[in-house]
Amino acid sequence: MAVNRTISLNPTPAGAAIDATGRIEVRARGSEQHFEVGIDAALADGATFTVIANGRPAGTMALASGAGNLHLHNLAGDLPPGVDPVCHLQAVEILDSDGNVVLEKARLFSDSAAAP
Question: Which pLDDT score, from 0 to 100, does residue 38 have?
């Protein structure tokens, strides 16, 4: 199955307080899978965030010039359990260093046939 989607993340009150915006990019074709999460926020360089996919840690990212990015690809190694397979993603959250959810998206594929 082929999937190629860019999905906007929704800010929580904690995210609105730091002017956070973000997006998820999901691509799958054959056995190749790609998962990328980006955030923009009004915080100092070095601020860190944790990405949670389907309730499991997927990775971390740090801000540089107000933006952070986490890029995972199965050709570079195994994807984390919450990310694999990308077409079965149901929920993604981005947490700040204090554990507050700043961006989130549930039911990623609720409007398409991408997830069986």
Answer: 97
- Please check whether residue 79 is in contact with residue 115, taking contact to mean a CB–CB distance below 8 angstroms: no
Of 75, 74, 64, 76, which Cα lies nearest the Cα of 38? 64
User: Which pLDDT does position 85 carry in this prediction?
Assistant: 87
Is residue 87 within 8 A of residue 45, CB to CB? The reply is no
Local structure of residue 80 (DSSP, 8 states)? P
CB burial class (10 A; 0-12, 13-18, 19+) of residue 68?
buried
Hey, is 16 helix, strand or coil?
helix
Give the number of other Cβ atoms within 10 Å of residue 10's Cβ.
12
Residue type at 76 in one-letter notation: A
Q: What are phi and psi of 14, to 5 degrees?
A: -65, -35
**Torsional sign, CA 69, 61, 7, 56:** positive
